[in-house]
Amino acid sequence: KLANMMDRTAHGLTFDKCTLSPEQLRNAYSSQPPGSGLVLDEAEIAAGNRDAMTLTNKALREVMSIARVEEKYLVVNAPIKGFIDKDILKLADVWIAMERRGLGLVHHLKWEPYTERLYTEKKQRIELDDIEAGSDLKKVYNKLTREKKRHIGGEEGQKFIPQSDHQDALE
């Protein structure tokens, strides 16, 4: 919902602007019009702090660094700020710590360059209503939910084998 509010294009947040994959996000950065709101959901899966030197994280850092000229707005969702690669976090301007569903505490992120300390200045609270049922935005949300379920079931991603495939291999 936040990315949709930030999106300044005629179509708002669409399927093509939301993904679980940093590679697809990179494609969205290059293909979506200026002013787009983009979402990398469950970022800890593919752009986590333990993957700092992977090509995926390097590509994501590159996009976040140079694509600012396109005036695109990226919302990265993760359960805990510490799960995100530190270099990617350095490129972020705002962190919203969700206190409960629909209520978050907004922090401005500022890095002190000499000690490389992150300051998380509390600014305000933000409250968002639930996404309206039947809306285009709800369809986008439902698509991401289906992608997550496929990922959990082993249909997506590269680290899981579906239970049925595993059972076939065992037999």
Overview of the molecule:
The chain is α/β, with parallel strands linked by helices and about 170 residues long. The chain has 7 helices and 6 strands. The longest helix has 17 residues, at about 135-150. The termini are far apart.
Key features of this structure:
171 residues, three-stranded parallel sheet, single chain
Order of helices and strands: HEHEHHEHEEEHH
Beta-strand residue percentage: 15-25%
Low-confidence residue ranges: none
Q: Note the gap between the termini.
A: 46 Å
Trace the largest sheet across and list its strands. Answer: 1-2-3
Q: Per the principal axes of the C-alpha atoms, what is the gross shape?
A: globular
Q: Total number of helical segments?
A: 7
What kind of sheet is the major sheet? 3 strands, parallel
Radius of gyration, CA atoms, in whole angstroms:
17 Å
Summarize the amount of helix as a percent range. Answer: 25-40%
Number of strands: 6
